[in-house]
Amino acid sequence: xxxxxxxxxxxxxxxxxxxxxxxxxxxxxxxxxxxxxxxxxxxxxxxxxxxxxxxxxxxxxxxxxxxxxxxxxxxxxxxxxxxxxxxxxxxxxxxxxxxxxxxxxxxxxxxxxxxxxxxxxxxxxxxxxxxxxxxxxxxxxxxxxxxxxxxxxxxxxxxxxxxxxxxxxxxxxxxxxxxxxxxxxxxxxxxxxxxxxxxxxxxxxxxxxxxxxxxxxxxxxxxxxxxxxxxxxxxxxxxxxxxxxxxxxxxxxxxxxxxxxxx
Length: 263
Hints:
The chain is α/β, with parallel strands linked by helices. It folds into two domains: about 40-65 and about 145-255, TIM Barrel; about 70-140, no CATH class. About 40% of the residues lie in helices and about 15% in strands. Helix 8 crosses helix 9.
């Protein structure tokens, strides 16, 4: 990803892996001087029931003890969830091991890896009648280690700026939400909303710029590239260009909120 960003002459990219910070040092080590690596995260938070909301954090202190402890707890909760589902699969005569889930891992094995493993491993085909759907629902019911407000507080505690990721995906069939629909996130402490997000053609950006202005919050954005390439070798990295002043506004907000250290 870093090499591809440099090839595209990008001036900065944010590393915002899901619920882990482990890629940031590697990215920094690989980056040329011309490319700034913004340390970040995308936290999977609970919001109004079982649906997850993703909260982006930028300009983090990646050594912050509170944030590291919360991420460790999230991983431990997910590991216990995975073990519970694997045991349920064994009880109905299926076979799926934790090692089988590594190929699907983006951060660490979770609900998505369990579902893919069951589908591709033949667990559902061989399950007794009526149990397949129960296993799928069980796998999808991932634990959440923090609420949206808690995720925002953790990001702020690490000196970072919190932004609501891809608001166009919050409600199925409603990609363009208005300010009233997002006001509760501002009430929970988010500093920004993602205006440049992965909507084909970028047609929703103007709408979310106006929503951010109405809510009096900053904006963030990016191509949300996960490193995957299409059949012809293309990546979407850099496909959603973001003005430099957006980055600088987020940097200033981080500097304003970062606690002063005793000299």
